Every structure is written in C-alpha cells, then in structure tokens.
Amino acid sequence: MTHQALIARQKEPSTSELPPRSGKGRRYLALVLLGILLVAGAALAFALRLGERRALAKETAALSVPVVTTVQPKREAPQQELMLPSTLQAFTESPIYARTNGYLARWYKDIGSRVEKGQLLAAIDTPEVDQELMQARAARKQAEAQLSLAKTSAERWETLRKMDAVAQQETDERSSGYAQSQAALASATANVRRLEQLEAFKHVYAPFSGVLTRRNTDIGALINAGNGGSNQALFVLAQIDPIRVYVEVPEIYASTIHPGLAASLELPAFPGQRFSGKVARTADAIDPETRTLRTEIDVPNHDGRLFPGAYAQAHFGVNVSGARLSVPVNALLFRAEGPRAAVVDSNGKVHLTPVVIGRDYGTEVEILEGLDPSENLVLNPSDSLEDGQSVHVVKEGDHS
To answer: For position 267, what pLDDT does the model report?
Structure first.
C-alpha cells in the first residue's frame, strides 16, 4: 500500500463514527413520497376519465347522425311498352231464340261447328201453328167467296138502280157490303201471311257466319217463342274472325291511344308468341269511376286459334309525354299525408319531398312529379326521419 492511500484511508471516518439518522426524518420522507404517489395517481385517473368522457361524447355525437345510403332516380325511356290486362271477345255474338212454339224435331249443328249465313241449324215441330194456318187459309177462302157474292150483288143492284127498279138505300147497302167483304178478305189474307211467317220460323237458320259456342236444347224439348221468362236461347253463335279485345287504358296514357295504333296480344296458352292487331276505336271519354279510356283492338283470327273469353295481355308502344322517373320502392316513405321521398342536399340535410306515384313495377315505382334526376334519395329511410335532419351519406358497400 502506498503512502498516499494509507493517508486517505486514515482520513475516512468509520461507520461507527457517523452520526445516527433520526426516525422522524425517515417518516417525513415516506409521507412526502406517498403524497407524491397519490397526487400522481389522482392526476392519472382524472386524465383517464376525461379521455373516456371525450371519447363517449364523440361516439354519441357520431351515433346521433344516421348513416344512410342514397340512390338517384332513373329516367324512363321516351317510348315505352304499355301492358294491360284484357279479355278476348267475339267480334259478333248473338243468342238464337225460337220465334214459334212447338217441340224440337231435330238439330243439325252442335258446338264448335262452323256455319255459314243462312245455314239450317234446327227444325221445330209446330202442330198448333199448322192447324191455325189451315184454319186461316179456310177463312180466307170463305172471305173470297163472300167477296165474290158481294161484288155480284153490288153490281146487280147498281144496274137496277139505273132502271129505277130499286131504292137508292138498297143500292148503298149492297155497295157497303162489297166494301166490307173486301176488308174481310184483306184481314184474312194478312192473318194467313202472319201464320205462314210464324210457321217459317220452325226452321232456325244462322243469321251470320261464325261458330256455335252453345247448344241449349235437344230433340223433343218444349220450345217457347221469344226470350221472355225462363226461356233459353237454342244456340249461341259467335263470329271470331277478327277477334275483339276491350282494354281499359289509364287516363295518363289516354292521349297516346288513337285508332290505327299498333297493338299485340300475348296469351298464356301461347308462350313467346304475339298476335298483332290495331286499335279500331276508343270511347273518346274517360270513365269517371275507373279513370280509364275504353279501347277496342281488332286482331285477325283466320286460323281460329284465339278463343273468346281467353285472358290476354295487350301491349301498346306509346310515347311518354314529359319526363318520368323510376325509383326503388324502398326509397319512399308512405305516411298519412301521402308518399314522401327523403332527398339529401349537399349539406347532408334531409328534405321530405312529396311525390306523385304512377305505375307500380313491383320493386320500382314510377314517379310522375316531385323529383329531379340529379337528386339523391335515402334508401330504406327510417320512419323516425324528420325534415331538416342531418345524415351521414356513405356509398353502398361501405358500411363495414
């Protein structure tokens, strides 16, 4: 050990020579440290709570603004196909009644038979009419004989009167008898003609060319003249070429429908096929109850494939007047005051705009008034959505 190290060691006091620390100082130091720790912990807890409150406020504010998806209305084509339900009808259809009493002796045509105008359909046995006709003819012969006698008598009396052999009164009586006999013969002749025409009705003829759609009688059935009471038509005859179709066109399209407009029919019985025709005429008046225009379409039916009574869809190619839009049906609010669209402006504010709905396409509806093609509509708007409410717009698919 060097001399300097030895001197330094001698100068260092030993542990036993240091003055002892008091217990009071140590307790004070511990309390100070504890206070510092408590203050730091409180500050940390306050900072954490403040951060949580700010995060909660921020989240609450964000949740108070609904997140919505928007869509824009679509323009409809200026010319579109108008499709309306309809029912096929015969161009001419007539029930055929008997015009005389009797019993059905024979029928010659059954349902489905195609007949020509004037063709015999049935024969009726009319014994009572036959007897009345025989009696009327005998009465006419009697009237003819009386007329001949009255004429001879009147001429003879006229000759005698010229010779002053008879009185003028007697001559006038004979002339009056002759005139009465002439009237009686005319009456008897008219009665014979009436019964002859009535007997002619024992043969039932087709009034026009067509097809028999019904036969309501059979051999031996009692036939009553006319269509009063419970009498039934013997046959129903229909002309099915061309076929006639009546369509009720909505009022908003009435101005586009006119005679000569091309139309076509689509039937479930002929999938994928269309039968072409033309508008023959319209009622030129709107039905105030249905707000529709009654329109007739005539369709050629030379091959008889179209049957009266069948259901069909009538198609028209019409020009749309004015701008018409279509929107998804889930972009509208249906409230007591009427349908509304939730339109979002550039500031993210919602405006509940009233709209006028046209046709319903199922998933989409036609809008006639109230919207502009550039406007953004809220999809699936909530019933609680209010006018002027702020919303957050996101693109479809960005909700995640």
So the answer is: 92
Q: What is the pLDDT of residue 123?
A: 93
Q: How far apart are CA 206 and CA 305, in angstroms?
A: 22
CATH topology for 67-77+323-394?
Answer: 2.40.420
What is the chain's Cα-based Rg?
Answer: 53
Nearest 5°: the CA angle 359, 362, 366 is 30
The 3-state DSSP class for residue 391 equals coil
pLDDT, tens digit (0-9, with 9 covering 90-100), for 274-303: 999 999 999 999 999 989 999 999 999 998
Contacts for 379-385: CB closer than 8 Å, 24+ residues apart: 379/68, 379/69, 379/70, 379/71, 379/328, 379/330, 379/331, 380/69, 380/330, 380/331, 381/68, 381/331, 381/332, 381/333, 381/342, 382/66, 383/333, 385/66, 385/333, 385/342, 385/350, 385/352
From CA 58, how far away is CA 43, in angstroms rounded?
A: 22
**Residues 223 and 274 sit within 8 Å (Cβ to Cβ):** no
CATH class of 243-319: mainly beta
> Distance (Å, rounded) from C-alpha 104 to C-alpha 124?
4
Cβ atoms of residues 312 and 265 within 8 Å: yes
The stretches in the chain having pLDDT less than 70 are 1-23, 51, 53, 55-64, 77-80, 227-231, 319-323, 395-400
List the CATH code of the domain at 98-126+202-233: 2.40.50.100
CATH class label, 128-201? mainly alpha
Q: What is the pLDDT of residue 295?
A: 94
In the chain, CATH 1.10.287.470 covers 128-201
pLDDT at 247: 93
Number of helices (H) and strands (E) in the chain: give both, helices first.
4, 22
